[in-house]
Amino acid sequence: MTVLRFREAVRAAMVEEMERDERVYLVGEEVGHYQGAYKVTEGMLDKFGSRRVIDAPITESGFTGISIGAAMVGLRPIVEYMTWNFSAVAFDQILNNAAKLRQMSGGQLSIPLVLRAPNGSAKQVGSQHSHAMEHFYAHVPGLKVLAPAMPADAKGLLKSAIRDDNPVLFMESETLYGVKGEVPDDPDFIVPLGVASIVREGTDVSIIAWSRMVHVAIEAAAELEKEGISAEIVDLRSLRPLDEETIVKSVTKTHRAVVAHEGWPYGGVGAEIADRIQRLAFDELDAPVLRATTLDVPMPYNARLEQYVIPQASRIIENVHRVLYKS
Amino acid sequence: MTTLTNGDDLHLSLYRKMFQIRRFEEEAARAYAQSKIGGFLHLYIGQEPIAVGASAALRPDDYVMTTYRDHGLALARGMSPRAAMAELYGKVTGCSKGLGGSMHFFDKEHNMLGGYGIVGGHIPIAVGTAFASKYRGEDRVSMVFFGEGAVSIGDFHEGMSLAALWKLPIVFVCENNEYAMGTPLSRTLSVEDVSLKALAYGMERDRFNSEHVLQVRDRLAEAVARARTNSEPTLVEIRTYRFRGHSMSDPGKYRTKEELEERKKKDVLLRSRVELEEKGHKAALEAIEKEVEDEITDAIRFAEESPEPGPEVLEPTTYAGPFAR
Ligand SMILES: Cc1ncc(C[n+]2csc(CCOP(=O)(O)OP(=O)(O)O)c2C)c(N)n1
Fold first, then answer.
1. Would you say residue B5 has pLDDT above 60?
2. What is the pLDDT of residues A269-292, one digit of tens each?
3. Is pLDDT of B181 > 70?
4. Which residues form the Transketolase-like pyrimidine-binding domain (chain A) (predicted)?
5. Are A56 and B154 inside 8 Å of each other by CB?
């Protein structure tokens, strides 16, 4: 075990997998000489050279498409976007090619591709740099979508993603890069896709979250404990595949659920989870499933309004009170 | 297919391919009219010398990709008419198990890496296959086909820009048939010479009218050699003409009967036939044509008799490996 920051855990996963497998390479804007816009790729150019750590011009659709093509014929690219917000420029490539080529070709082609980038809100970077994009992609069969909260999970899941034969999208909360945690050194350590983790045991309510919202949920749970409310926190880690079993098990224990996520509520992943809970554990529920999400507006620049729009611990607590009929 | 001889044997074999594509599509059109084939059906009739000439300039291990107008290239690369026809019929014996349809022919064995429905979206993907060849130190070449309609879209420019910047072994082939759906060239491009776009990227270029299948082969062979030996991309614009509407649902009212008749007189396939007949190959031509007719009849029977894919194909073609939950 070593204590690593989240960004270092992401880097360690890439370095180990690139050492292990010659077919893995990294491409993106500023990943090489500049050492990464968020310094995630620091030192990688020196280590692997410009054949495998490739600076691309501002051509999101171009280098995404190229990576799909390279993956189709046997390489295993890792693509970094400066933020997931800019992946919208490559949405056609991800949706219409990466996700669909296997089926369109009758199973002849596989696309072993990892797309990764910072995601979600940061601090006052305005509406075009702040959105949590996992909701757009979790909708799409053919893609896998991961959103870890802890450095160890970031490393283990990214290693799994690089070894996976499908297109996998890896969401790194921009605000988590500095978070520290114990991370296994074992190069064979991986976290399987589609398995949630219980980061806090509790009995009164299940808070289901991923990425940065897990940390906000931990904060909320500490507050709730002072009121004598015991919250269990389920960190999904993976949104597609989704660990229904762990969600249902937790709700069966607590009988109440609040889903907490960044991103808009309308048609978001929270709505999917609420649907699954009512479908699979209806008889266990003592209250409707509620969601604590980003408000249904583009992200404002103003600091105070920004904090109002992003879900805070207080919004999770409010919703917990409502499912406990305490407000 | 790769020996660059100009003998009549080669010409006859290329004629055979062109004739096979023509007859395949004429029969596909008939089956479409009988509602045996669904969806869109974009015919390549008139443009056959390009796919066939290009395939003759390539090695079997080179990669190709094209648009939804993909039957010609797939057959030229060696896809069996059976697999092609069965795909049109949506049968499990089709090249893409009946899941792709007319616009999405794939044949990995022949390195035909697909027909794509989004105009221009496949161009960077083809560049990616060239990237992979260079990354691995192989001398394979990629060739990507698209219409002049794709020249306005961003992915064309991003693909060209990166291929030139990274010096990748690819040939961009614009099949300029002068119409993007119903819009004539004069209303799609401010500069009608598509090959000029190469200048902005410092890329080699070529431009010619498709007049003879061997000429297409020879001119593309130059670009292929540049890709194979120097790892340099080339943009090639080939002027051509499609004799049918954009798709089966398009009567093509945006062009005059006279224009169409004029262009049909210059049918390159017919020109090959006349030339070969004049050289005394009448018997060989008739034998080839008989053989192809039998092949197409067999393909149709095969397609009609083949089973449909069942729902069990859906999951394994959506994800590689098990997909937990
Ligand atoms: C991005 C995109 N926009 C629009 C369409 C609809 N569309 C299909 S084919 C076509 C015309 C394309 O013409 P061209 O590229 O010249 O190819 P051709 O059909 O002549 O071979 C259009 C507009 C599409 N498939 N994709």
1. no
2. 999 999 999 999 999 999 999 999
3. yes
4. 4-179
5. no
Could you tell me the pTM of the whole model?
Answer: 0.95
Partner-chain contact A61 B158, CB within 8 Å: yes
Among residues A152, A214, A112, A134, which one has the least CA distance to residue A10? Answer: A152
CB-based contact A210:A33 (threshold 8 Å) = no
The set of residues, in sequence order, having a beta carbon less than 8 Å from that of B246 and lying 6+ positions away, is B42, B179, B181, B182, B252
Residues A202, A231: Cα–Cα separation, whole Å? 5
Q: Does position B322 have pLDDT exceeding 90, yes or no? A: no
In angstroms and rounded to an integer, the radius of gyration of the C-alpha atoms of chain B is 19
CA-CA distance, A251 to A284, in Å (whole number)? 7
Residue written as token pair 């260079």: B134
CB–CB contact A62 B126 (8 Å): no
Report pLDDT for A254: 98
ipTM (interface pTM)? 0.93
Residues 206-265 of A with CB under 8 A from B: 241-245
For an interface test with B, the pick among A61, A195, A239 (most B C-beta atoms closer than 10 Å) comes out as A61
Q: Can you give the pLDDT at residue B1?
A: 42
Question: Which runs of E-coded beta strand occur in B124-250?
Answer: 142-147, 170-176, 179-180, 183-184, 204-209, 234-239
Interface size A-B, in CB pairs within 8 Å, comes to 159
Interface touch A104/B99, C-beta < 8 Å: yes
For residue B244, which of B232, B253, B234, B233 has the smallest C-alpha distance?
Answer: B253
List, chain by chain if needed, residues with CB within 6 Å of any ligand 1 atom.
Answer: B 67, 69, 117-119, 147-150, 177, 179-181, 246
Decide if A96 touches B, using CB distance below 8 A: yes
What average pLDDT score do residues B225-237 get? 98
Cα(A185) to ligand 1 centroid in Å equals: 51
Q: Tell me, what's the pLDDT at B323?
A: 73
Side-chain half-sphere exposure of B54, counting CA atoms within 13 A: 33
Closest ligand 1 atom to the C-alpha of B69? 21
3-state secondary structure of A66: helix
